[in-house]
Amino acid sequence: MEPLVELRNVSFGYGSTPVLQDVSLHLHRGQFAALVGPSGAGKTSLLKLVLGTVQPGQGNVKVGGEPLQGRPAPRVGYVPQLETVDWNFPVTVEQVVLMGRVRCDGWLPWHSKAARNEVRAVLEQLEIDHLADRHIRNLSGGQQQRVFLARALIAQPDLLVLDEPTSGVDMRTAENVLHLLADLNRQGITILMTTHDLNSAAAHVPWIICVNRTVIAEGAPEDIFTESILSRTYQGEMMVIRHDGMMIVQQKPHPHTHHDLLPDPVPGHPAPRTTVRSQPPMEVSIVTEVPHAVAG
Ligand SMILES: Nc1ncnc2c1ncn2[C@@H]1O[C@H](COP(=O)(O)OP(=O)(O)OP(=O)(O)O)[C@@H](O)[C@H]1O
Ligand SMILES: [Mg+2]
Question: Which of 93, 114, 218, 284 is 20 to 30 A away from residue 212, measured at CA?
Answer without folding.
Answer: 284
